[in-house]
Recover the amino acids of this structure.
């Protein structure tokens, strides 16, 4: 099976712009989660989507949003970019299973640089 | 709430040395515990997992045992190789919070020949 794919891999934006990142989960996986990874804060959970519905959300401002399509592909959007949004954004997918026991499989990430 | 505390790095070892990376957790429910590894420029790869107390996860010579009494999930390997150089993350998920993973800060390991 193909792994989790994320596009684009690298992105450079300027402050105030918006950005959309895309994630294609492993075939058959219906849950997609997004994480932000920075040297200072480590890995922080953004949100999770399951069957096109947001099932869980982390502590990020409303500028961060996401959605999931019927084929389980997901996008996340960041509006009004700030310098502090520079990070590696990781997408992870999982197969439905026992809650709390599902392994998450990660994509390679999209590295966003905000200038 | 849920949290993971990981041993501070970086860790530098000689090839064939014994590795231990400490990980302790706090959880409100019955967590599953994971170790992930991240190589430079890549995403996270699952290394091993354990879903209940006393379970031992193992993979590629790495092992970790889920110790409920000490709330720990320490990663060990008997003989490290240069190719094990990476950042290691301990993580938990809790059935009470669905699929949300809580990660430790990561431990950077460098193995020198």
């Amino acid at each position: 099976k193909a792994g989790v794919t994320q596009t684009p891999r690298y992105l450079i934006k300027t402050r105030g712009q918006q950005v959309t990142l895309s994630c294609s989960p492993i075939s058959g996986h219906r849950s997609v989660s997004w994480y932000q990874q920075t040297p200072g804060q480590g890995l922080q959970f953004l949100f999770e989507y399951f069957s096109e519905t947001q099932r869980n959300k982390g502590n990020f401002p409303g500028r961060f949003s996401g959605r999931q399509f019927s084929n389980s592909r997901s996008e996340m959007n960041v509006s009004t970019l700030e310098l502090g949004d520079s990070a590696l954004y990781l997408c992870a997918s999982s197969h439905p299973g026992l809650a709390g026991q599902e392994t998450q499989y990660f994509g390679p990430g999209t590295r966003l640089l905000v200038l | 709430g849920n949290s993971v505390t990981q041993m501070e790095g970086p860790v530098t070892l000689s090839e064939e040395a014994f590795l231990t990376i400490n990980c302790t957790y706090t959880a409100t429910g019955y967590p599953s515990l994971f170790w992930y590894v991240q190589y430079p420029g890549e995403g996270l790869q699952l290394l091993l997992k354990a879903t209940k107390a006393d379970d031992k996860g193992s993979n590629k010579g790495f092992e970790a045992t889920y110790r409920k009494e000490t709330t720990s999930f320490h990663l060990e390997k008997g003989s490290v190789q240069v190719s094990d150089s990476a950042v290691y993350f301990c993580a938990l998920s809790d059935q009470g919070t669905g699929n949300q993973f809580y990660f430790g800060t990561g431990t950077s390991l460098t193995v020198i020949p």
Observations:
- The interface with chain B takes residues 4, 31, 33, 35, 42-43, 45, 48, 50, 55-56, 58, 90, 92, 94, 98-109 of chain A (CB under 8 Å).
- DSSP finds no helices and eleven strands in chain A.
- The first strand of chain A starts at residue 5 and ends at 7.
